[in-house]
Each structure stands twice: as C-alpha cells, then as structure tokens.
Write a structure and sequence with these properties.
137 residues; Beta-lactamase; three-stranded antiparallel β-sheet; two-stranded antiparallel ribbon; globular
C-alpha cells in the first residue's frame, strides 16, 4: 500500500519508517529489519544479523532540534500526524513517531497508515504501541 504525499511523492509506511529512523538514532540510517529476534523451537532467543551498515544522514544537532519540535512530553517520544490522498482518491491518516531515550537502550520508530481520516485514533494507537515497546506508561 502506498499513499501520495505532497501531490506527487509516493511513499510506503516502510519507506517512511526507514527515513524517519534517523531521528531515533542520532542521524544514522540503518538497514531496515522487520524482526530483530526470534524464539527458536528450543525456546532460545536468536538475534538476526543486520543486513546493512549505518549511514550518517543528519547531524546529531539537527536530530535534537527536529525531535524537540515533534515532542509532546519529556518522555523521549516524538510524533507527527499527517494526511494524504491515495491514488484512488481515498483520504489516509499517517502517524509517524519514535523514541530516542528508551530505558532499554533500544531505539524505536513507527510509521502507521490508517485508511481513514482519524488523527485522534492514529495518535492513540501510535502512542500506545511506542509506549509499550519502551515500557513508558
């Protein structure tokens, strides 16, 4: 699924998450991973290796300025909500957010696309997912 942003820009939630991930890891872009770890049949956890290298995209100062503008609280979580129209004319709601100061030394980013115009629902779902990921309640 993709939506059209800014009239001609076509982007998927995964592409947006990759682009936004630089805000949660000090300006570094990493190779995307759908899963980082899996529980094996032997009940052991196995971590998947990264399939790429980090690339510097933004300076740490630029990241701090941007995430400060996108933060609603002092919990390390940044977020934004936007609207777009799909190629079929349908209106979509985007949630984009991340965590920079997770207590478990992990960085998280979430790009979510709702197939309706509902910014309040997007904020509730997005904040809940990120809060649970980092145990912020």
């Amino acid at each position: 699924m993709e939506a059209v942003l800014f009239n001609e820009l076509k982007i998927s939630p995964l592409q947006l998450a990759i682009a936004a991930s630089v805000l949660s890891i000090d300006g570094q872009r990493t190779a995307p991973q759908i899963a980082r770890i899996v529980e094996t049949p032997e009940q052991e956890w196995e971590e998947f290796p990264s399939l790429g290298k980090q690339v510097s995209v933004l300076t740490p100062d630029a990241v701090k300025i941007t995430t400060k503008q996108l933060r609603m609280y002092d919990d390390g979580m940044w977020q934004a909500v936007a609207f777009s129209t799909g190629t079929d004319g349908q209106l979509y709601t985007w949630f984009l957010g991340g965590i920079t100061d997770c207590t478990y030394d992990r960085e998280y980013v979430l790009a979510m696309l709702l197939e309706e115009e509902d910014p309040e629902l997007a904020l509730r779902i997005g904040n809940k997912i990120l809060s649970r990921a980092c145990r912020i309640e």
